[in-house]
Amino acid sequence: MHSPVRKFFSYYKPYLSSFLSVLACSFIVSGIALAFPALVRYITKNVLQGDLSTALHEVYGIGALMLVLVAIQNIGNYYVDYKGHVIGSRMESDMRSELFAHMQKLPLSFYDQEKTGSLMSRITNDLLLLSELYHHGPEDYVKYLVRFIGAFMILFSINAPLTIAVFCFFSFLFLLAIYFNKMLNRTIRKNKERIASVNAQVEDSLSGIRVVQSFAGGDVEIEKFKRENDRFLVSRKATHKAEALFYNSFETIIQLITITVILFGSANIVHHALDLADLITFLLYIGFMIEPIQRLNHMSTQLQEGITGFQRFMEIINLKPSIESKTNAIVLPKVQGEIEFKQVSFRYEEQGDSVLSKLSLRIRPGEYVALVGPSGSGKTTLCSLVPRFYDATDGEVSLDGFDVRELDLHSLRKHIGVVLQDVYLFAGTVMENIRYGNEAASDEEIIAAAKLANAHDFILNLPNGYRSEIGQRGVKLSGGQKQRLSIARVFLKNPPVLILDEATSSLDNESESIVQASLDLLARGRTTIVIAHRLSTIRNAQRIVVLTEDGIAEQGTHDSLLALDGTYAMLYAKQFEAQ
Ligand SMILES: Nc1ncnc2c1ncn2[C@@H]1O[C@H](COP(=O)(O)OP(=O)(O)OP(=O)(O)O)[C@@H](O)[C@H]1O
Fold it and tell me: Which part of the chain is the ABC transporter domain (predicted)?
């Protein structure tokens, strides 16, 4: 678990020298600002009340000095604004990259619980104002602390009792700021959670836009969206209420301070304890003490946005990937493909029911094994334990005799190819999608893989051949075409172990036979586990394993299982009748 404070400051490290130069500049600029009321005081108290024949000459001299100071101050402010913001944005961008990379390592069990849209919101919205926090946070503290302490000391030297009276008001402001900042933090956190829900709703509706339109479900989606959007509005209203209360209480106290200074200052003038020039100086410096507080006050929503964004960032960063390579994990350069499940039990959630219980199965290198059984019996779950999409709750899964938890995760997954029923293609070209199987592959190798997957001909018929854009999730392709691209991807990967999970189930007869031909070719010489509902497609499997809710019910070849006249024979007869 990272310490939040240490983690927060660690992002300054790569930019430390630039950031210190910004802080130094900020310090100088604030010091210069303090000189102006002192110069006004000098003019009103010393120059204008002294020898008037030389006064104008001296005033021009001070005016020239002021111009030089203004120039230095503005150049300094430009540097602080520009450089500071760039540094803040860089840190924000570093954090965004770190969060995305961290999410890549989180296990599927994490994604089972979270909504994609909410996670997107954490990467985009939540981090947006962190740059302001990183840049303005320390820099404003330096700037305003210099101004505040400097003004306090000068005022104290002019009139100590009045300064202390004013300071009492400031401590009250300070306490008020702490209280309201806590309140803002709460409401802003709620805002972020609710905008994340709005995002999740948008993502869900738009990803399923085909289902929405086919069910004419636009109104339902609009209603669901409105519900989330309204909840966001309610929490925004609470934030605005807190902000308005905060700002206006502050302004009231600040006005009270000014009135106190005018009243007490005037009384002091009447009693000859203060002169007019001192009162003017006092009022100018009070402005210096008030300005930092006003500014921090107006900035506080932005800063709080940054703080809550950081807190939500830490919630994810602190999640330790439960499935990762051990230190000194074994890297397998070559895999024979022997898979063994030893007394494997599994359940998805800690409190949930077991999906698999003490299951044992050994698959020989190069063997073609079909898994069949009723829906929900755990076939997909069993296969997902091999590439460690999930870890067995009990027992051991091994590859070539090595417990998969001892193997380097990258090297383990490199040796396993998975073809699913629900193909996922990325927005991009055909070429880019096939290359996903092996980033180092040449164009020729990609074309060869496409030929093996029976995809080459249809790809050439696309408007731009291999350079054709296939749209989000491959919408511009048919189901069979998408499946053949996903098979080409696995051909290119060339893994010794293959898992085919209902790869042809959603295809029509013609597409199925083309895809089946490519799958048969793909399976050649590899250890293959096939999950199939259509039993006709696995008749030739070397071994058929029948999985039921109670575990492995029977196994053997198609003919031996029919002869056994058990679960398989019953499933087969049912399908045969239906056909
Ligand atoms: N990600 C998940 N989180 C929680 N439970 C799950 C998850 N995936 C599957 N399950 C549950 O685990 C059980 C086994 O599911 P699994 O998908 O492995 O079965 P299957 O035999 O492959 O089914 P089918 O043939 O219908 O695909 C089911 O009861 C299912 O509800």
Answer: 339-574
